[in-house]
Amino acid sequence: MQTRVVVITGASTGIGAATAELFGRKGWAVVLAARSQDKLQKLVTEMTAAGSKALAVPTDVTVKSDIENLVQKTVAEFGRIDVLVNNAGVGISGTLETVDLEKLEYVFALNVFAPLALLQAVVPVMKAQGDGVIVNVSSIDEALPAVYTAGYGATKAALGYLSNSAAIELAAYGIDVIKVLPGNTESEFEHNKLPAGQSMSKDAILAKVGLFKPVESEAAAQSIWDAVMKRRLQTYVTAQDELLCKALRLSPVASVKLSKMVMRRYMSPDNTPAQASVQQDLAKFGSILAGLGVLLCGGLGWLVFRRLSGNGRHCA
Questions:
Q1: Using one digit for the tens of pLDDT, what is the confidence trace for 98-126?
Q2: What would the mean pLDDT of 28-36 be, rounded to a whole number?
Q3: Under a CB-based contact definition with an 8 Å cutoff, are residues 35 and 56 in contact?
Q4: Phi-psi region of 125 (alpha: psi -120 to 50; beta: other; left: phi over 0)
Q5: pLDDT given at position 14
């Protein structure tokens, strides 16, 4: 059986590195692409020592000649490309009134145009094979009205739209275009985020709201593997992410109103801690529900008692 081949961008750290290691353990030939040659080579050395087939190709995915070189070297080494994982990307922080537009243009180039250019580069290879899978690593931010990072969310929304359209256009050639939407993940994402205006870190926002504890990169890698195996159009890493995104997609207007309410209650305009917290509100809500449950059970018990008492008198 011919060895299957996966090309992974942004493969030097985080989700990309975890995905490369997982595919390698599964017996795939793995081509790792990223700008950091040292990190790539270190990972390839470790994977090779563990018995995996791995090739490092230093690549800046915003440079067309680098993309062409990546595809050419992969085909020359392994003869095919079964899966492309478009994982390379970067975040950006800054309110929309202050965000640096030049930096935002770069983020669009890396997060949107580079995955599209890579798709265009591998499609001829996959068409010739009559089969292939292209994975676009998006984010739950594509469905959320993000604050302080709206520029990043906009790139992921654009990537998601292009993914769905490409899935339709390429289906006739046996090529599936799918997307995986991680949420808060333990990686170097926050460290690498481009500061481009007045903002607050995502970790600080999540700490104040008290939700979405980060999951390990390995969990996201497993979701990518599962999505490829099932060729599932859209995959979330956690059930919590899926529930939130599906709920917000039902009514974009309601999601904006809800986000405004959350901002007013749990965060202040000057980023100072708010008095309220999600944990306190959930505790109060739980107490209210418990009280209502007691009242409901008591009421039902009383009705049953009256019913049985009435039946007893009637029989006498």
A1: 999 999 999 999 999 999 999 999 999 99
A2: 97
A3: no
A4: alpha
A5: 94
Residue with tokens 């492309």: 84
- pLDDT (tens digit per residue) in 144-196: 877 788 999 999 999 999 999 999 999 999 999 999 999 888 766 666 667 76
- Name the helix (H) or strand (E) containing 180: strand 175-181
Residues counted in the chain: 316
Count CB-CB contacts under 10 A for residue 272.
Answer: 8
Q: How many Å apart are CA 261 and CA 281, to the nearest integer?
A: 13
DSSP letter assigned to residue 148? S
Cα radius of gyration (the chain) = 25
CA distances from 67 to 25, 81, 120, 239, 281 (A): 26, 14, 10, 35, 50
Angle formed at CA 7 by CA 115 and CA 28, multiple of 5 degrees: 150
Strand order in the sheet with 5-9: 53-58, 29-34, 5-9, 83-86, 132-137, 175-181, 234-236
Annotation marks residue 236 as catalytic: no
**Pick from 64, 71, 54: which is nearest to 19 by CA?**
54
Q: Which residues contact 68 (CB under 8 A, 6 or more apart)?
A: 121
One of 148, 152, 236, 266 is an active-site residue; which one?
A: 152
Closest CA to 68 of 18, 120, 113, 32: 120
CB 67 within 8 A of CB 61: yes
Distance CA 239, CA 143 (A): 15
